[in-house]
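Bit of a strange request maybe. I'm writing a small parser for structure token strings and I need a real example to test against, not something I typed by hand. Could someone generate the tokens for this chain?
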Amino acid sequence: MIVKKINNVKEGEKVKEEMIKNIYKKDVDIYTEEGKLLARFRKKEITKEKIKLFYENIKDHAYKKTSNRGTASGQKSRKKNVRENPKIMSNVIGYIDGFAPSQKVKIKRNNLDVKTNIRPCIFNLNEKEKWKQVQPYIKEVDKLYKKYMKEEYKNQREKADESKYKIEDTSFTTVTTNVNYQTRIHKDRGDDTEGYGNITVIEDGEYTGGETCFPEYGIGFDVREGDILLMDVHEYHGNLKKKGKGNRMSVVCYLKLNVWEKSKRLTKKEMIEHTELMKKLAT
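Reply from user aminoacidic:
Good idea to test on real output. This should exercise your parser:
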């Protein structure tokens, strides 16, 4: 199916229902007028066992409120102090670039020699068994990415395999979970620009809304539990408001370019030393 742009949108604004003319609820491929794949939507692809295992092990971490999102959470300026961002349930696991405020204090206080700011997330370090249990779900998403986006997957996997920090046997370095908040209109930054993004959803209770939308094109996708949406995250996208008491957790797996570019330069010895240092910072 081919779509064209019908709306002018502004980054940081909410997606409004009147912007969205079509919401897809079945398998579909969407292309722009220029012939570029905008989104590939597939229903009921992820097994229930892996969904349950992931959710039971991630929920305590995923339901914590943080201020680590920018435009997507309603932040008006990228220069704004991250601590002043709206508090939302958006959390990261895997590997990231940059240190948490508490870690920066420890580094300065102890005059630590830090080779790079690429690091395992605190969840990986402090919740080793849970980190192990969430990975089958991530690997299933990875297999679906490979199945439906062969060329893009191949290029991204090559980068991941060069990285000293990546999620084992996948093309991903990082996973973000978002619970219940309405992601505002934004474009993803810092991920693999040659790859495609993905969104899967885990549900706890009943709700309506929350559809993932491309507001410029006036379309949305009703991504429900077990579905996968492979999408061009470098186009403007966001979510409609979720309605009802049920919880909607979206799971986004991606390759963070800084993690790939910086970690691939580390020697094996430097990586081991750095990981040990990160363990100390996580306690």
